[in-house]
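User: I'm curious what two different proteins look like when written out as structure tokens. Can you demonstrate?

Assistant: Sure. I'll show them one after the other, since each token string lines up with its own sequence. Here's the first protein:
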Amino acid sequence: MSTSPVPVNLSDKLAQFSELWSQKKVAELNDYEVKLAKLKGEFVWHSHEGTDELFLVISGRLTIQLRDGDVVLEPGELFVVPRGVEHCPVADEETAILLFEPAGTINTGDAGGPMTRAAENFG
């Protein structure tokens, strides 16, 4: 017995959690994960030596601090942080984002520390 395909409703998924800086995996594409997260405050400076990282703002406003200047994202805007580029996400208000990155990517990259968390399956 097969199940029929079901689209992922991002608004519904976002309404199901309130934890900040906790990535929720909502889909997989080849060797990549599509993740949702809610952010508020400042994360940690880090880089991902082996992969680029895509940030898409769904609601709120996200500043991605880079060593050579900040990138500010409004809802509907995305930015790709190139592999190896040190960055620090900051959200002055609660912000919902979609991340697209290879499966198993550590959220704190090379920095580690207390904010390191594995993505939770949320599909």
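Here's a second, unrelated protein for contrast:
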Amino acid sequence: MSNAIDIPDSSDEEVCNIIGKAVVDLSITGQPVNKATLALKLLAMADQDNDEERILLYWIARKALNQPHRFASALY
């Protein structure tokens, strides 16, 4: 079993975009941007989405925040 997060090649950019959108949304509302607030924002974004594939990307993004070394190895 691989230690890396299994991400389809086309999804890595989407995960980065999702994290970026969360950062922008937090900044616009004047909230601090840190690992905890990003994780909560991503969870809220996932709760508001009905697309199962995008919801999975939100969870992958949350995991990438908590384990960035594993996410980075999945990209290369």
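A detail about the second structure: DSSP finds four helices and no strands in the chain.
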